[in-house]
Each structure stands twice: as structure tokens, then as C-alpha cells.
Amino acid sequence: MRNESRKGRNRLTVCLPPFPIRLPRLALVLGVGGALFxxxxxxxxxxxxxxxxxxxxxxxxxxxPPSLPVPARDARDAPEPEPEPEPExxxxxxxxxxxxxxxxxxxxxxxxxxxxxxxQETASDPPSSPVSGSLPWQQYxxxxxxxxxxxxxxxxxxxxxxxxxxxSRAIRLPGPLTTAWLSYAHDLVRQTREARARGHxxxxxxxxxxxxxxxxxGPDVLRTDMDVHTLKAKLDNILGRFPGYVGINNHMGSRFxxxxxxxTVVITELKRHGVLWLDSRTARDTVGPSLARRFGVPxxxxxxxxxxxxxxxxxxxMLQKLESLARRQGYALGxxxxxxxxxxxxxxxxxxxxxxxxVLVPVSAIVARRLEMEETGRKTAEHxxxxxxxxx
Length: 392
Ligand SMILES: [Zn+2]
Hints:
With about 400 residues, the protein is α/β, with parallel strands linked by helices. Helix content is about 50%, strand content about 10%.
């Protein structure tokens, strides 16, 4: 019994006491752990609250910025200085055939052409165009979609009509491009009709006297030593080579376009014909734009030559430059030539540019937009002083 009772006591002491001891321990451990967790949580919340309290400004004042109109790539471009105008067009770089003698083609008579080509408007033209008005440059403008704020790029292909094969390649490019046809090329009525049917705008590319007398600008050239009567007669003849063009630009002309007397004759004739002036800027000191402004002739200026070097790498980089300029300035105007590198680069660039949000427009759209901007600026300037007067 003693043994049993000892055993029983022992059993009791061995079996029973651990329960009351272990339960409080477990509860204690859980309780302390929970308390520590709670304290930690409260401290964490408290610290976070203090942070919120003491640092409210950066949190409140840094909402997501509004969508910037300029993509990040252009933000990198922005600090760069405005690009200088391209160096004077290296007229020495012009294709060899300009250095060879030309034979003047038999041009169709003005009246004959006018009868043959009644109008450029076709059934395929969209119904509306932002270039509205009754002047020839407005009537023959290639219609474009209404301006929606997207950067606009105009690409002019000069020197067309001589190299038939490359001219044909140029007008098969996606457009609208602006095609400038050398006044002395053959078969211009047919060539330009096809270009217009493919949606490209038309211009006459008029040979003008270069500074470098070794260069041959071709037949038809307008020279500074011509008298007013001769200049007018030559230009009027050139302006009748084919119908449906919006204006002219200069082929070479680094001497002619700096001569106020000679250029006044050209600009006033353009005004009389209701067509625009595109200054190719082959000379830094051209007087074309200032005279056009003075005489109220719509005009535009070349900003970038795409192919002073006839290689793909150079043309691609110039197109990039044109694109950046368009994004900064709202529009950009580049001139290229029917050369292999240019044609290849444009074929890949035009669809890509459209995908990237650029709008390809003809020269007339750039001219129309500049006129609208100037008109808006003029009205604002007129309005501002009257407000000031009212305030006073
Ligand atoms: Zn040219």
C-alpha cells in the first residue's frame, strides 16, 4: 500500500502537476508574443503615421504628372540648341549630270497644256482641305486631314523629271510628298500627272544662277544679269510647263536668291500667278523669304537637306533630325533628291513616321499653317494693347 500509495502519489505528482504548469506557460508565451506583436504593430503604425504627418508635402504634391506633350526622347533633345540651318547646299555635290551640257526639251505651249489639263481635282480627293481659297496654290494643294496638334513633316523631292527611273521610284513612295520638277525635263505633263494621281503635291523646280560659275544649272536658268523684261518672260514661260503646281522653288541659285532686284521680279510674278515660294536656302543670305513676306506671297523655307551625302546612314540621321525638329517646332520641312540612298531611306521612314504620330503633309499645308499662326499672332497683338488700355 505504501508502495502503491507512494506510487499513486508519485503518479499524481508526476502526471498531474505538469498540466497546471504547462497551460499557464503556453498562455504566457502566447500572451507575451501577442502583446509584443501588438506593440510592434502599434509602433509601426505610429511611425508610419508620424511619417505621414511630418512628410505630407512630397506625398501630396507629387501626383502623377500630366501626360507630357513631348516624348522622353525629345526631352533629351530639348536642351540642345536649335539646330543651325544646314550648311549651304554643297552645289558641288549635285549629281554629275548637272555639270554636263543640257539640251532644252521642246516644252508644250502654255495654252496647249492648259487645255489638256483642265484641273487637278479628281474624284479620289477627300471632300475637304484645310487649305481653302481660290488662289492656284490653294486650289492645287493636296488635301490633308484637319490639324490635330500632331507634329507635321513636309518632304520635298527636288530635281525630278530628268532621271526617269528614279523619278518614277520617288512618286511610288507613300505620301503625300511634295514633288519638285526641273523645269527643263521632258514629258513633264505626263510625269506630273502621274505624281499627282499618286497623291503628291507638285512644284516647279526653277534653275537659278549659282555662285560657283563652274556649275551648270541647266537650261532655263534665271541669272542676275538679265533685265526685268527677260526675267519675266523666262519665268512666265517656265510657269507654263505643266499645270496643277502650287508654287516654285530654286534649283541651285546661291547667287540669284541673294539679289534683291532679281528676286523682286520673281516674287512679284509669283504673286501675279497666285502661287507660293519655297526657298531652298542654298545661300544663307537669301532675300527670298523677306521679299515674299513684303509682297504678301505665301512662302516656306527648307530647314534640312536630307542627302548632302548620298549614303543611307547620313539620310537616316537627317530624317531623325527632321523628326526631332518637327516635335520641337510643330512642323519641319526637309528637301531630298531622287538618289538611291534617299529613296531607300524614305521608303522605310514614311510608314514608320506615321506610326510614331507624325503627320506627313505637303508644302502647301506648312504654308497654310504658318499663315494661320501669323494671323493668330497678329490678332493677339492687336487685341493685347486694347486690353491694356481698358485696364488703365
Ligand atoms: Zn535642284
